[in-house]
Write a structure and sequence with these properties.
Layout: E1 13-15, E2 18-20, H1 23-30, H2 34-42, E3 49-51, E4 54-56, H3 59-69, H4 74-86
Antiparallel strand pairs: 1-2, 3-4
Helix pairs in contact: 1-2
Length: 88
């Protein structure tokens, strides 16, 4: 939890000894709106669990889903720019 200093410890819900995020938590961690989180859910881009009328997210699963969908990384950018330089 140290990685998310802007989140209150109380914001996390513990269910059966495991920490779960709410929609608000996901929005804060990824700096997006609640509407975006809802859209991600509808498009099945992030996994979630419905407990009664409550939606909860496993932090590790959400992070993995987001990382899986990223388009590139800093390393990819550096590697491609070094190939461009070497071909000149």
């Amino acid at each position: 939890m140290n990685n998310h200093k802007n989140l209150d410890r109380d914001a996390f819900e513990v269910i059966r000894g495991k920490l779960w995020w709410s929609k608000d938590d996901v929005a804060r961690v990824f700096n997006v709106s609640r509407k975006t989180v809802f859209n991600w859910m509808q498009r099945r881009l992030i996994p979630y669990v419905r407990i009664g009328h409550t939606i909860r997210f496993d932090p590790a699963e959400v992070k993995a889903a987001i990382l899986k969908r990223r388009c590139g990384s800093l390393y990819d950018d550096i590697a491609s720019s070094s190939r461009e330089v070497s071909t000149r």
